[in-house]
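P.,

For your records, the input lines for the assembly:
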Amino acid sequence: MDSYLDIARTVLRAHRRPMGARSILAAAYKANILPAHIYGKTQQKTLQARLSEDILHDREASIFYRTEPGQFALKEFLSDPDFPAKWKTEFPARRRTRDLKRPDSLAIRTTMAASLENTAISMSEFSERLEGSDALTVMHPKEMAKRGYSAIWTFSVVRRDDQVLAYRIGRYRDDRDTFANRRSIGFLGALAADDVSLFSTDSLGVQDCAVAVLSQDLDLSVATFEHPEEQVPKIECVTALADLQGHLDLVIVLLWDSPEWFEPTTRRLSLNDPGWLRPSMPPNDMDDFEPWSARIIKWLAAKDRPKFVHG
DNA sequence: CACCACGGCCTGATCCTTGC
DNA sequence: GCAAGGATCAGGCCGTGGTG
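Structure tokens returned:
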């Protein structure tokens, strides 16, 4: 009953302002409301972890939210007219990792994916092939290989004019550590059953997935994608690519034409070494790119070439 | 009552990122 | 570079609720 979270709630209620873990704890000590069973060397870290986990796991169900990094407040303050407006905007903590491997991931028969190896088809063609087939199902990624299924990824490329955004994949951001530390032009998302929303423009929720990934990885607001028609990620092609273990995955490539104001910054981004790359003029160090990006850069270059022949 | 499984909770370490 | 923030993990404790 007197867990860290209970104490945080009591203290925050009493102080009516956002507080850090350290000051919550200090206030609890002052008010002498810390039960004897709560002890430790770095209690502020423990409290911080409890609050972080609660917000992370329960999301909108959590009674807590962040006003800025390390500052926590109670959701009940949001409906309080006397609570200062400057503390009413929720600060979304940056995720350290994305949970790419959800239990309800979409899976496709590897035999079906294999028919797309070394080629690429349009989304409509892909939909046609799926029509009336039972190649699609839902399962945990761990099961896929042994049951003869492949994962389905969205691979979102950020484009500006004839350039695409390249960056170095950090070690932490992807559990497919084979791609870690390589350069990439794509932001990966694993398609899951619940990506399909009422407002989905395609039956698999591909665009919803891409929007979620881009807003998370590029630190954009989802609203960025809501209004102008031209700022929605467009499905480019569907193909199949092998990971470094040789297992085939289905890859849906999307292109997002970034708005004028968009400029990748490393400051609030966990993008390492970002830069714009012209696929028509591929760099010498293509080996530095992870294999999927290398393939897709070539594909984009071939597709764009006719535009530049006159030069 | 003794025993056990289970889940919730807590500690402390670790890893990565960011701000100063 | 260093301190602090954010996230995750293993390990352990403890109350609860069966079950024989």
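Two observations worth noting. The two ends of chain A are 73 Å apart (CA to CA). Chain A is about 30% helix and 25% strand.

Regards
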